[in-house]
Every structure is written in structure tokens, then in C-alpha cells.
Design goal:
The protein has two domains: about 1-130 and about 265-295, Aminopeptidase (3-Layer(aba) Sandwich), CATH 3.40.630; about 135-260, Aminopeptidase (3-Layer(aba) Sandwich), CATH 3.40.630. Helices cover about 20% and strands about 30% of the residues. The chain is built from seven helices and 17 strands. A hairpin with a 2-residue loop joins β13 and β14. The longest helix is centred in the first third of the chain and has 14 residues, at about 10-25.
Amino acid sequence: MQIVKNYREDAALRASFNALAEATFDGLNFETWFQNGHWTDSYRPYSVVEEGRVIANVSVNDTPMRVNGKTYRLFQLGTVMTAPEYRNRGLSRLLMQEIEKDFGPAADGFYLFGHTGVLNFYPKFGFAALGGETVYSRPLPAADTAADWVQVPMNTPENHAKLWAAMQSNRFCGGFDMVNNPGLVMFYAGQFLTDCVWYSRAMDAWVIAEPDEAILNLQAVFSPDPILALDQVTAALGGLCPGCTTLTLGFTPADPAGWTPDLVAEPDTTLMAKGRFFEQGGFDPACHRLPALAHA
């Protein structure tokens, strides 16, 4: 039994990791993400391996966040899982300790979304519940016939490359942005939101916008234009979902004026964090939201 780290290029261990993820999280699998070339060093599994089999895991996501013009080194922990026959043996504790040893000195903070059934575990490592996040919404403007949005399906390497390039050149700023981790965004765009990516030539802007009944969830905006305003983008979104009446943001707006804030918590999960960034008020649940596409 040993701890093995960041082994995505090892096909056998990756297959074992995926098998445990599928069994633990109702079919979750990272193989498509890997084959698309989007699994980078920003996502590092820390696993306990016995006889070539992954039996426990905690993954580290490198998710730097830009807040008020300054970038903080934050790490998200996720894909916490242990094979049923190996539970209650302290394996997750070993992995958490190893992660703290490797990343603690460089970290401004750690965060995770803990399942309500195991919330008594994380405080043992210094994590505290934050009490939710703020989601911003407003009425969705009527369709703008002048809007020139073109859907860019994420079903080809060429379109993947276009979105990746847009993220690399992005200068659009929100109030709490993940930076330098396009691979995590592509985890969603390349698998679950393949029909939700749009490009506007007029604004030179990309959006990931997900309809959900009467709600259009604007998950991300990418543009090389540093003065592109969120209001300019949202005013042209009505045509993406003619039946939608409400627009919500999957991120924190740089200027919350005109938006309705709502403090919410994800079902069956609790946002927990530790580290100087969080302890010194860097994240305020009453006005901040961790980017939805930064969740892992």
C-alpha cells in the first residue's frame, strides 16, 4: 500500500481511478477529459494504491483566484473517495496530511464542497463552513435582433482549441475570477456543456450560457477586450434562450449594481475552507461566489 500522486499518464492507474470514481459518484469519469488533452497538472489525484488498484483518493485542484486585481493561490480539494471495503481505516487522513505537506507552504487557502454526511471529518484538518455563496440574478433582456452570437459546439478539436485560446487571451474581469486553469473549464465545456458555448464577433466575446427551464445561467465570459462590460454582454443574451425570463451569473460581477443577490448553498453540500485568505475575509459569502466552472 502506497501513496501515488499525479499519475494521469499511467493508463492502468488512471483506469482504476476512473473505476472508483464511477462507483462512488454515479458514473463520474475523467477519461474523455484526458483524451481531449485538457487534464493538466492543475488537477492532481493523490491516491492510496494497493496491488495496482486505487482504493482511496483526494484530488488537488490548482485554482488561483483573482480578487480586486490581486491573484491568490487557492487549492480546491475534490474527488474524495474510498472503496467501501477500505473505509474507516484512516486512508483519507493520510492523503489530507500528504497534501498539506506538499501544498500548505505555498497556499493562501484551501476550499472544498463537503457532502453533508461527512462534515465532521473536515474540521479535523482546520476547515470551517462558510455558509454558502451569493448568486446574482436579474431579468433577462428581450432578444436583440442585432446580436450576432454563433454557437460553437464543443465536439471537435478545432473548436476546443478556439475556446482554449479565448481563455488564454482573456482580459474580461469579474469580481472573483479563476485564472490560469483553462483545463477545469474544459472539463465542463467539453463534456456537459457542449452546446452552451457561443461567440460574438461584434464584441469579440465568448460566453458559456446554460439554459435551465426559464433561467439562463451565464457561467463564464471570455474576451481579450479589457473594457468589455458585463452589461454590454448580458444586454445581447436574450436570443440564446427565447423562453427564459431570468439571467443568473455563475461568477461574481465586478460591479453588483443592478443585480439581485441571493445567498444560497448547494443541495447536500457545504462550502468549507481554511487558510489566511479565507480567515482574513478574502471570501465573503454575502457578496462572493466561487466560479461555477471552478467547482470540481
